[in-house]
Every structure is written in C-alpha cells, then in structure tokens.
Amino acid sequence: MKRLFSILAIVGIMAFGTVNASTNANTVAAATTAITTTFQNADDAAVADKSFTQQVKERFIEGGPFFMGIVLLCLILGLAIAIERIIYLNLATTNSKKLTQDVEDALNSGGVEAAKEVCRNTKGPVASIFYQGLDRADEDIDAAEKAVVAYGGVQMGQLEKNVSWISLFIALAPMLGFMGTVLGMIDAFDKIEAAGDMNPSLVAGGIKVALLTTVFGLVVAIILQIFYNYIISKIDSIVNDMEDSSITLIDLLVKHKK
Q1: How many helices (H) and strands (E) does the chain have?
Q2: Most buried residue, 121, 129, 146, 164, by CB count within 10 Å?
C-alpha cells in the first residue's frame, strides 16, 4: 500500500509538471530518490529488528536438514548428559571436614558402630568410602585400607559415568560440520562442471550453505567443551577430597586401635 501511494505521488508530480518541464524533471528525480531512500531505510530497519533467535533459525534452515539435524542432536544429547552430571556431582559434594570431625567424635564416644551410623546418614562418595573402611575396622588396618582404596575406585567410576559421551559429541559435531562443508563444496563444483562456466552466482549459495554446517558444528563443540571442562574440574576436586579424607580415616582408625 505504501508503494502504491508512492507511485501515485510520482504520477501526480509528473502530471503537475506539465507546466514547467525542467522543474518537473528535477522534482521527480528528487521525489524518486527520497522515496527509494525511505524504503531502503525501512528494509534495513526490518532486518535490524530481527532477533538473534530468528537469525539463528534462518541460518539453521539454510544449512540443510540432514547435517544440521545431526549436529543439533549432538548438542541436545551432550547438554542432557552434562546437566545430569552437574546435578549428580553437586549432590555428591559434601563437607568432608565436618564429616571427618563427626566420625572422629562418634569413634571416641560410641565406637565403630556409631561412626558407621554417621556415615549412613550422610550422602556422598566420601561417606560411602568411610563406611566401607569402618566396616573392615574390626579386622585390621590393612583390610580397612584395601577396602577404602577399592571402593574409592568404584566411586570414581560413578563420578565419571557417561562423561566420555560428552567428549565424543565434542569431537563429532565439528567433524560432521566439516563433512557437510566438503559435500557442499563438491556439489558446488558439480554445478560449475555442468554449467561449463565459472559464474560466482551459480555456486555462492551452495558454498554459503556448506559453510553454515561448519559454523554450527564448531558452536556446538565450544558449548559442550565449556560444560565438559567444568565437569572434569568438579570430578578432580571430589576425587582429591576423597583421597585426603581416606588418608584421614586410616589415621583415625590407627589412633582408635591404640
């Protein structure tokens, strides 16, 4: 409708300009330039008004459903595993110093059974390791130490469960993106060969679509890498805490035996 009004305005100017031809020509040119500039600014504003999400959707659709869908699946699965691991690790984090003090007080006041009861009422891998060590306390220190070491390995495996899948998706996403780019480039060169002419407009669209798969693959890998590094650092922190607490437990048992 706006363009129709603009055309009518130009026609009106031209009709009015029959009185003075030279003046009309300048007026029509100025009016046409002003209208063109107005619509160009309006189009630029419409493009600028697009949200980041809308732009990502458009780029995702342009990249093609096959490779983009696989890359998106890697992101969804990787994030699901990462979120599950983060929740698990946060729940597994305990105040080991307080637990050690509670176990020591229980050993001094009620013996091994009281200390085991404290461990049963406390969540986390450190409490589980303590319980296994205390459960062998009636035998000897070597048996308790072996139980602590063995069960520590079991708890470490629980902490690292499914983390390898995140590293797989980190490697897989950019590789799939590169594959999509290579296949897109092959398709572009096939078009050049079929046309027998190196026309940039013939292959520009195909090359752009091919490169989009690489961009999205790298973005997915970067996002998952951030979560992966956080999870690994959290696991290392818990494992160090487990090792320090295990040494402290053995010292407590030796002290209690005397």
Answers
A1: 10, 0
A2: 129
